[in-house]
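Q: For a teaching handout, I want to show students what a protein-ligand complex looks like in token form. Below are the inputs, and the small molecule is nicotinamide-adenine-dinucleotide. Please produce the holo structure.
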Amino acid sequence: MATVAPVKVPAPQIRQTNCFIGGNWVPSASGKTFDTVNPATEEVICQVAEGDKADIDAAVDAARDQFDHGDWSRMDARDRGILMNKLADLIEAEIDELAALETLDNGKPISDARTADLPLVVDCLRYYAGWADKIEGTTIPVRGDYLCYTRREPVGVVGQIIPWNFPALMAAWKWGPALAAGCTIVMKPAEQTPLTCLRMARLAQKAGIPDGVINVVPGYGPTAGAALVEHPDVDKIAFTGELATAKIIQRAAAESMKRLTFELGGKSPNVIFADADLDAAIEGAHFALYFNQGQCCCAGSRLFVQDSIHGEVVDRIADYNRSHPVGDPFDPDTKQGPQVDQAQFDKIMQYVEYGKQDGASCVTGGNRVGDRGYYVEPTLFTGVTDDMRIARDEIFGPVLSVLKFSDVDELVERANNTNFGLAAAVWTRDVAKAHRFAAKVRAGTVWVNCYDVFDAAAPFGGFKESGIGRELGEAGLAAYTESKTVTLAL
Ligand code: NAD
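A: Here is the structure, written as tokens, with nicotinamide-adenine-dinucleotide included.
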């Protein structure tokens, strides 16, 4: 991960706390609000409009009206791209303040928000702006005297539901392809982290993206989220979050045959062979799990280490953990901030207990840091076996499980012994071994001698219960289009 010179962080201004519907900033119809909390201090940052069914109905109406009668899906595609680039430019111009807002609401270190999250937001929007005028159909050589061709059309009104771990980036991953395709959007941000999404909507309006194209309704999942999923006028739901929530959504959306894409959780295997560049592998394995407080869907949470180097790898990761700067996320030297909320904190501490109960050894961490804020020590378990709860379940926190292996064939089987299939990584100097592992592992992304390398052009998504469909790249765009076949008698 690149590092930058420390900066003086501007105090983030809270400018938007209402729903953004049809270009207007409006309180929720019920007048209700909810608190969004600073995870570093446990203090309330502000109250945000608590949208529910009535607000979702109004937002879907605005999105439908814009899609059916407005100019977004009809304007020259190149002009859509120009407006998207303008949004990217405005975000880039406010990158420091947006990063600070993200840190305030989510607790992630400001240096990560500035060098990772927000630059990736800008890059994603620019990447998809470039696609806007390159969405092409094909001509098809059918039998007979006909001209047959396909058109790729926007899927329509899309409901987008995102989690709290990368609030701005998840919004960009969803807005980028939807906007390029000409769709209109109703987004429900996570209740823990609504602030950057609302600020980005303000910048979209400033960029000149027409009213009704992007609508944002903050609120809770079982109310606002469920209303969006059940709405008959929504053509597609794009969801990122937990597997259990995805299953509820899949059942609810069956009624209206909505298009669905899911980006879900993981329990990703990260494999270090004895022939790896150990300096790079150990630093990479540490980053793979502890980045973003361990709250990454693709976290390398099952670290498989070949037996001959096991001791060295464990010792060196433990050393990293003991000197890992955990603390105030606004301190530019901090590498690990607080977990996002009390519920996450409690869940992580419960898994630390499970690890101990199931017989693993807690080499570092396992405790709370300080008495204010949801901080957890970087935690490392060894002696972990495949059946333990810490090796099977997604913990979504700074808890690394190290598993030993000796036999390479058995390793692949063990790596695949999970219902998830989001990501995997392998560290080795043997290129053929790396390719063999990449071919055999059941995961949507495989990193070789690196981890968490993301690019807007490279598709990302899960095998098995880690999701359906792909985000990013051309595949991510395709999920926001319908293909129409036109046949003309000549
Ligand atoms: P979550 O499923 O609890 O919440 C995600 C979103 O769904 C929130 O906006 C929430 O309000 C909403 N929601 C909750 N119940 C709902 C319902 N009944 N109907 C409609 N919407 C509802 O997940 P989370 O705890 O916010 O996020 C963590 C999860 O997200 C982890 O499993 C993580 O792996 C996953 N994730 C996946 C990716 C990916 O790209 N694969 C990226 C980031 C996070």
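A: Two things your students might notice: The chain is about 40% helix and 20% strand. The first strand starts at residue 19 and ends at 21.
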